[in-house]
## 1
Amino acid sequence: MTTPPSVPPATTDRPVHAAGIFALSGTRTVHRLGFGAMQLTGPGVWGPPADPDACIAVLRRAVELGADLIDTADSYGPTVSEELIRQALHPYPPELLIATKAGLVRTGPGQWHPVGRPEYLRQQCELSLRRLGVEAIDLFQLHRVDPQVPAADQFGVLAELRQEGKIRLVGLSEVDVPTIQAAQAVVPVASVQNRYNLADRAAEPVLEYCASQGIAFIPWFPLANGALARPGGALHRVATELGATPAQVALAWLLARSPVMLPIPGTASLAHLEENCGAALLQLDETQRAELDAA
């Protein structure tokens, strides 16, 4: 990983801080490059990882590098990711925001099924509180809107949990603009987590709506780039110019794309973690941004 020479030395110990900050719902401030904890599990996001100690080391190093937003879900493992986070980081630093999700049940590796019954979402919130060892969940996200349950009922239980002080902020995942608006009629929405990356911008209308509303947009699968990273591709060309990796440039492009963008790249590798966090130090010029925008 090559650090641009213009980066002040003070930022290199905690490179994530160079990404800037965002205030969720205007109240809770985090740096805009977080850490996604989905990969701290076994294959198919199922069962424990092969090396739990290595995953604990990655979590601790992410915080050392300045990450103060860690995103997880009750379904990662299931339960494994939340349990590792507590083992690695509890008692949590006051600046650390842990976001978790409920609304998908698991029946095996790679198997995901939406369940949005209010009693189930409430139960999962209570279990996440215990596993994470907190009195309130900083950001509780509806992992999917269950099409078999009235959406207003799903949003309603999130509002109730917030009123009860069991969750502080509410987020949604994989939603369109009308769904966000329907949720906003019931409960304040602090974040939206949709798939978005340089090669897949289908959620562009959602990003634009979030920007207009001051809602954090958390892109999952942020590093998908495919042919763009191959020699001759836009990512490869810009990475070569900057002395960086294609993954770093992909993350830098996301950070530059919108001030509401909060990428959460995940990994179980310390080397990849260091690389991802170093993306916050990259500065894309207008020509490089335009080339990537057009890719």
## 2
Amino acid sequence: MILDLRSDTVTQPTAAMREAMAAAPVGDDVFGDDPTINALQQRVAEMTGKEAALIASSGTQTNLLALLSHCQRGEEYLVGQEYHTYRYEAGGAAVLGGIVPQPFEIESDGTLDLQAVEKRIKPDDPHFPITRLLALENTHTGKVMPQDFIAQARQFVDKHGLKLHLDGARIFNAVVATGRSLAELSAPFDSVSICFSKGLGTPIGSVLVGDQAFIKRAHRWRKMLGGGMRQAGIVAAAMDYALDHHVERLAEDHANALRLAQGLSKLEGLAVEPAQTNMVYVNFNSTEKAHNVSEYLRKRDIIVGRTQRLRLVTHLGIPANAIDQIVAAFAEALADES
């Protein structure tokens, strides 16, 4: 059995999920005729407490739709340096929307220093882009965004007449970790992007939520970007199945990550960061050691990255009984390095 710890995006749809996809009633979603998509969008809107929802192919697309729908050309969004909407989505907002990012260093808990952010809000002057949006991320590097910070962020954007977007790619991990409802975690935000192809295990699909006017704008942008899908009810069926069967089980991934972190922390030559949800970060003292350990593990069917700060992600494809095997393999790899 191959154990791939690079990301929770490597999950495979289960046999039951495939059956649900095969049996899904479908229609042409560009015409609004796909009943499975319509039902899923209504379900997610209700779960988040928002007026409307829109399905798209990926979290990158739902985040881009949000930025394009909140901001016009020559306007800017405020964002963390390491948040996906800035660093990992190919600069789509700038390239396709003419939207300017204003990035900030991220605090150790995944938040932003709002006092520092406030200093970068642009005055109403033709020399500057117009500040429109603050974009956050929950979870970030496996850390749950503190709810008191999110409340402060809501007050902050209200004070300055801005909108608040959440990249909630792994928001269900935050739901399970905190015991708060999806609606509660979504409430402070004007829009939320929710990815289903990570911890929830679907092969494709994300949903963007917000008010009716916002989703109408996003729908137009989705069409312009080539994101209109036809009989995509098969995708929505997988997402619907995941909501029924793969949310509560995220607690297993969190427990496995905690066990993995505890096991690795006992090994010499590693600095292991505390695990909150389904991610464990391991720090090597050199990139060479990280590369050598990665190669050793790959020969034993354990797939990890090669970076000095290494991310290990637990998910559907990592059973609890594999954790000891993974720790033992790390121990062997480190001993081989000595």
## 3
Amino acid sequence: MTIGTRRPRAWLLSAYRADSHAAWADWLLASQPQVDWRRLELPGRHFAWRIRGNPLSWLDALPAEAPDLLLATSMVDLATLKGLHPRLAEVPALYYFHENQFAYPLSDRQNHWLEPCMVQLYGGLAADRLLFNSAFNRSSYLEGVATLLTQMPDAVPAGIVERLTQKSELCPVPIAPVSAAAERDPQLVLWNHRWEHDKAPEVFAEAMIALAGEGVPFRLALLGKRPRQVPPALARLREALPERIVADGRLPLDEYRTQLGRAGIAVSTARHEFQGLAMLEAASAGARPLVPDALCYPEQYPPVCRYPEGDSAALVARLRKWLGGDLPPAVDVSPWHADRLAPLWAEVLGTLAT
């Protein structure tokens, strides 16, 4: 993968360096040394400004010499960026969807906002290839575009979704597998997601409190990123089940991985999940994943590990059974391991850069 006698030059443009975005970018640059990378990132805060304002933030920050390849995340307003910098007009571009705004659930405090969707629609049209970390991410983006265009009053060209589909492919984010602990606790229930509305932690809290009321034995590892103000679901668990909580906080990486290696069950109640890296990490350590039968999860886990989406009674029933000793087999998530996915990313980068 060389151009003449040099490595191809690529810019990695990430407009929102939040946790999982950052982990992907760090891994990509470390795993693809055959590319001469230039990295441009913006902090993962002020979402509305980031997704619309990144071309302005980078207006005077881009290198003078154009690269051989652009790799932009879908938080990047790629169409505007290319328009503001004519030297980039003919540079091949990959547009990587870590998420898509068409399928992102709004909280009670948010209103529907068209601009993020339009950024990702125009970005998809401006790119040469679109990369998605799951089939659900791809299908929900394409379906969202189709729905949006049917709502426009006039002058909508035909074939937009077909154009986007033809240049779309799957390219997941890899995980670093976690080793199982020497001794597993089959009654240790793990929560390792963000404590935010799109992960529905209140459903998880309700289920665990209900099981405790039945006298079902279990312990809790309450991990994952949480805001400064304690979320109501976390406060409920701390108040109702303090004696069952064995870990509570955003732990250092080694301690976090230790808890994953010990856990018997990992639970998701997510209303939105485009790839679910936290669950994949837990499953790699041998924890049995219990997830909604929706979103990206049917691509990853067998039916025995899925409960009907939004059915809290089904979640409680499945947990009761598993905590009683009837655990299903561990799930093989090796297709998402870094050593399996690095060659796929190398092939995608090499094809477009040359």
